[in-house]
Design goal:
Helices cover 36% and strands 8% of the residues. By secondary structure, the chain is mainly α. Strands 3-4-5 form a three-stranded antiparallel sheet.
Amino acid sequence: MKPNFELLKDAYAIIDGIPGRVIDLDMWTAETGDSQFCGTIACAAGWLARHPKFNAQGLKLEFGDDGPPMHEPSGTYGFTALAKMFNLDESKSEHDLFNARIGGYRDEELTDAQFVRMSDKQLFKRRVLRLFQEYSEPFNEKLGRGLNLDARQRAI
């Protein structure tokens, strides 16, 4: 099974365009408002479940503007819904891309100092690009600047 890298590219681009101050990896939705400029604070999955591109493919929030994401085509919720949406291998913890601030995909490669300095937005973007690296999928190297992608070599 291989992740859906086209959808992950879209997810990366969407999250990249959202101000870091409104991304909080520790809650599906921390605050609700009309938009990213009007009080909404959510994790990466919470933002994606609000986006029309992902809504059209069946990813939505369980309670309309709150709660965990659900993948309507498979009838799944939370991390399982995200695994279905992006074709992530749960046995390899790939769905941990969307984990809270602690315990995310390949976060253990970072030193404590690196981890603390990264915003939630940077941490999510790093996780996505690390998955690209794991599968030798090409990505624009400029996207990885400042995200400590080389930390994996020190962790080996």
